[in-house]
Amino acid sequence: MFCPVGGGSGFVGRELTRLLKNKGHEVTVISRQPGPGKITWGELESDGLPPCEGAVNLAGENLMNPLRWWNESYKKDLFSSRIDSTKSLAQAIAASPNPPHSWVVVSGVACYKPSLTAEYTEESEWTPFDILSKLVKEWEGSALLPDNVTNTTKQVVIRAGAVLGRDGGAMKQMLLPFWLGLGGTLGSGRQPFPWIHVSDLAGLIAHALEPPADPPSPSQQVFNGVAPNLNTNLEFTKELGRVLRRPTIFPVPAFVMNTLMGSERAVVLMEGQKVIPKRTQEAGFQYKFPDLTSALKEIVGS
Ligand code: NDP
């Protein structure tokens, strides 16, 4: 299979590229930067989609970029980097004389309203209630293919929780303070912490890229990209401290996180959702890291 991956140069994209290449597939990264093995977004627009069997979009300005203040220009970039790139790929698929059999976009679980009790599956109804859920709505909407390709191309959205891995995402920023014994629970620690190991997210994308039934379902299929074991922030904090053999005695109060990150962004860490990967498991996906202990041991030990 040949598969162009928008944002394939990033944290999840590097893992996905490794996995697909190990399975004997070929990958081209779609990037803002030209380079060997890459095409740029401008080239995609001018030359169209190269003949391929699958296409993925992972592009997006990092929501946890510690170098960016939570302001209007950052929010605009969070939206445009995801929506414009997803739209470009969807349009290129629709215009292709031989569209790929599978089209996969990774969005986020921020569409589900944070709650200590509610449980959300892929079938749960939701309407946007804050800026991040509005982002998910527009992002997933921009991935929808026009009618002329829905009978040839399977459309998949994977709603990922916090992606855990050594080379990027939240762990990259957390490991140093935890190593120094400065890690602690965020707020009350009771908030759910939906997460997935990066290797499982890459595996789930590869699973979604497999050829569909003939003809594919005409509607967008959603999979929750989270581990099946539910954890709270307190459980995550204690387990990371245990695996690292470091104390985790310094709780971080909500006002500190809200001041540092902006409350609209801090919500991702200070609140959370119990997300159940119902359809993911029903589809037969086998997790390598279904529980926190195995995931964190792999990350810290690697
Ligand atoms: P990264 O932060 O690693 O970024 C992926 C790629 O996006 C980058 O390599 C870059 O590619 C491109 N990119 C970055 N900023 C911009 C911008 N301003 N405009 C256009 N392109 C940009 O992402 P991850 O690999 O961590 O995540 C992949 C996708 O999954 C993202 O859309 C993310 O929102 C989503 N997701 C990630 C989670 C996580 O915990 N990591 C959780 C839930 C969802 P290049 O420089 O080559 O153009």
Would you give an account of this structure?
The chain has helices spanning 11-22, 41-47, 72-95, 131-142, 147-150, 169-179, 198-208, 233-244, 254-261, 263-270, 278-282, 292-301, and strands at residues 2-6, 26-31, 38-40, 54-57, 102-108, 119-120, 154-160, 162-164, 195-197, 221-225, 274-275. A seven-stranded parallel sheet has the order 3-2-1-4-5-7-10, with helices on both faces. The protein has one domain (2-301): NAD(P)-binding Rossmann-like Domain (Rossmann fold, 3-Layer(aba) Sandwich). It is an alpha/beta fold and 302 residues long. The chain starts with a strand and ends with a helix. The chain binds NADPH dihydro-nicotinamide-adenine-dinucleotide phosphate. NADPH dihydro-nicotinamide-adenine-dinucleotide phosphate binds at residues 7, 9-13, 31-33, 58-62, 77, 81-82, 85, 106, 108, 160, 162-163, 168-170. Residues 7, 9-13, 31-33, 58-62, 77, 81-82, 85, 106, 108, 160, 162-163, 168-170 line the site of NADPH dihydro-nicotinamide-adenine-dinucleotide phosphate.
Write the layout of secondary structure elements.
Blueprint: E1 2-6, H1 11-22, E2 26-31, E3 38-40, H2 41-47, E4 54-57, H3 72-95, E5 102-108, E6 119-120, H4 131-142, H5 147-150, E7 154-160, E8 162-164, H6 169-179, E9 195-197, H7 198-208, E10 221-225, H8 233-244, H9 254-261, H10 263-270, E11 274-275, H11 278-282, H12 292-301
Parallel strand pairs: 1-2, 1-4, 2-3, 4-5, 5-7, 6-11, 7-10, 8-9
Helix pairs in contact: 1-7, 3-4, 8-12, 9-10
Bound molecules: NADPH dihydro-nicotinamide-adenine-dinucleotide phosphate.
